[in-house]
Amino acid sequence: MSYLRHSDPAIAALIEQESRRQATVLRMIPSENYASPSVMEATGSCLTNKYSEGYPHRRYYQGQEFIDGIEDIALERATALFGAEHANVQPYSGSPANMAVYLGLLKPHDRVMGMDLSAGGHLTHGAKVSFSGKFYEVRQYGLNPSTGLVDYEAARALAREFQPRLIFTGASSYPRTIDFSMFRQIADEVGAYLVADISHISGLCLSGDHPHPLPHADVVTTTTHKLLRGPRGGMILCRAELGAKIDKAVFPGLQGGPHNHVTAAIAVALGEAARPEFNEYCHQVVKNARALAQGLLDQGFKLVTGGTDNHLVLIDAAAQGLTGKGLAQALEQAGIVANANKVPFDPRTADDPSGVRLGTPALTTRGMGQAQMAQVAGFIGQVARELDDPAALARVRAQVAEFCAAFPAPGVMV
Ligand SMILES: Cc1ncc(COP(=O)(O)O)c(C=O)c1O
Question: Is the pTM for the entire model greater than 0.90?
């Protein structure tokens, strides 16, 4: 940052501090990761200077000979990697990708079904506070109270009664496998589009650690910055016949010029995800999540569904007389960064919920394995036991910093 340090020391200093933070804490927010130095180089490149509204070889601005090549490669890699007929790599992020699906396939006030936020769904799947709950008629499905798993039969009954035009599946805090084929059957029964939002699990769908949403879903959406380890962005994959509708919804329906620096970085991340090492990484993410879950159970924590099939675990802190926020704040003081989260059927509010959500993607990128997850669970147990003792939390913080030093964070300056 030789230029920035000189021209804007305040921002440079904050970036450096954030960099140090990312290297010295255990980053366990399941939607976060470390993008590779190559992805970061593409994101920080001169491509940010270029306007290119439209799509490759059909632009509204001149000077696209290299930009077109970049987007062509991103599209080729996206369709090949996911086995999709059509891709759009321009959505600015996951929420705009989902918004484009609504805009492309529905009319305002059409009927939509999505998973409830408190069951683990995402805001854009029909929550009242989101555009999706405001501009569409939404009914939400949830979990079976006795198992904590998606209640497919209740979802089917709701679909039959409500007759939605579109069903969203996918989640932000669901630790188990989603049965896309079951949702396909439900969508077929009522003639609805099926959209699979695999933002959290896209890497696992590629590595075979989670069933693939294709060919079941009509449309697949994903962020590119979580398990996929790319830049902050979004992507839509769909059947060829829906491609024109989706493309028109993204541009000109919703967005202006694509973020070409992000498109290039998405291409780089997809190139990385096509290598065998990426599959190994995803397998390890799941092994680590299982080891973390076991470690937490050994520490006396209660976990939603009792464990995990994917990259995340959800602690029910209320079972130990704690609040999710209280535990998340104490963890942060100890150098373990997670997020407070609702648990299924949570009597508490989203601002001050009962659970804490933890994931393994970022720690796995740093090279940690199952043995380290047992140690991390030990740190978390110590924090929960000594929550009100700042000196004890500071001691854990020092241990965490020492522990982190053995696992360098890619692309992060120390
Ligand atoms: C399932 C799911 N969909 C969509 C999004 C939205 O992505 P973004 O925050 O990039 O808009 C998220 C973000 O966490 C998510 O978990």
Answer: yes
